[in-house]
Amino acid sequence: MIVPLVLLMGEEGDGMFLTEEQEQLRREVRAFAEREIAPHVLEWDEKSEFPHAVVKKLGEMGLLGVIFPEELGGAGMGYVEYVLAIEELSRVDGSVGIIVAAHNSLCANHIMLAGNEEQRRRWIPRLASGEWLGAWGLTEPGSGSDAGGARTVAVRRGDRWVLNGSKTFITNGTYANCVVVLAVTDREKGTHGGISAFVVEKGTAGFRPGKKENKLGMRASDTAELIFEDCEIPEENRIGNLGDGFKDAMRVLDGGRISIAALSLGMARGALDAAVSYAQQRRQFGKAISEFQAIQFKLADMATQLDAAWLLTMRAATMKDRGMRVTRESAMAKLYASEAACRICDEGVQIHGGYGFIKDYPAEKFYRDVRLCPIGEGTSEIQRMVIARELLGKAPSRG
Length: 399
Ligand SMILES: Cc1cc2nc3c(=O)[nH]c(=O)nc-3n(C[C@H](O)[C@H](O)[C@H](O)COP(=O)(O)OP(=O)(O)OC[C@H]3O[C@@H](n4cnc5c(N)ncnc54)[C@H](O)[C@@H]3O)c2cc1C
What we know:
Elements: E1 6-7, E2 17-18, H1 20-37, H2 41-47, H3 52-60, H4 79-92, H5 94-114, H6 117-129, E3 134-137, E4 153-157, E5 160-171, E6 178-184, E7 195-201, E8 207-212, E9 223-234, E10 238-239, H7 245-281, E11 283-284, E12 287-288, H8 293-321, H9 327-351, H10 362-369, H11 380-392
Parallel strand pairs: 3-6
Antiparallel strand pairs: 1-2, 4-5, 5-9, 6-7, 7-10, 8-9, 11-12
Helix pairs in contact: 1-4, 4-5, 4-7, 4-8, 5-6, 5-7, 7-8, 7-9, 7-10, 8-9, 9-10, 9-11
The structure holds flavin-adenine dinucleotide.
């Protein structure tokens, strides 16, 4: 990692080490989130309103192209910075965190990772600047964890491909200007050379977003169905080698899972901050509830789990920035951070007592939003399978 290192004091001397630039980025994103996002969180959540204006501003700040090189219009930063940005956004609103995550590390990163030079130049600058919003479609109604069971097909017709099928639960699906879609190009070969990736742009005949989901949490983010009916796209829109789509998608998810760990960290930190503040204000039996050891122990456990999750996530991010393979480390970070975040947000509600159940306090929303984290980009069960396979030396699989 980059030296010299500076002790980050922003989080009460919790032992985190970041460069001055990284610390500055964290401060800027936190200030932005508190100024531009916090005042609207409740309303967006209630109305399931997509925060278009904030997404535009995130593009202007470079946060929609954090991990892409400057020559392609990106911010030229790495996964450590990416984690910090998503964490700070999600500390205020997980919905904004997941919008950024799906755009950066799934959609744009698939193009960056598997696309050729021409394809990168065609799509990355528009995505990195925020001119375009991106989505990534792997999941289908009948294939989630078992992504290799996809039914969406792409059939070659001359120098064009014809897509038929549907994708489900796609983040940014309704509003995306382009989507990277995984489709079966050779049923016989299946995950071993039979799935390919395509970029489908908004407005392409035969492509339309379908049902927009009404969700438990992350309600300001958009989760939608994508429908392909005789959707014809040119060969130039096929990304990566023919048949390598599944393999590339697994590589994309290695990075994507770091972003879900970051999303978990942010919501957990928001829940912990809210709990600490509430515990010091709320008085029962003539004293602040923070003076009761039972509450202190909860806060201590929450903070310890959060730091452990942060360190696992930063290990994966640092390794990724060094170009190392992170299948095991990103799965561990995602598994631990998401499950720890659920426990932390649950205790956040408990510390608030009845007020934790009321929408006037942020604890309730963190509790709902965070529940996505052990599910999206591979469930906890799938992460355990990935980690075990890595340990036992078997071929890595999806989630
Ligand atoms: C809000 C939201 C946003 C999303 N965004 C996207 C997106 O942008 N793009 C995209 O492609 N997908 C997206 N997804 C889909 C997400 O990745 C899937 O929901 C997830 O991978 C699980 O698939 P599933 O829902 O079909 O569950 P299933 O695979 O049906 O799993 C159901 C249960 O069975 C368990 N299970 C399944 N197989 C096994 C096994 N072999 N061993 C043990 N347990 C098993 C699972 O762990 C889970 O507990 C999103 C989902 C949500 C809810």
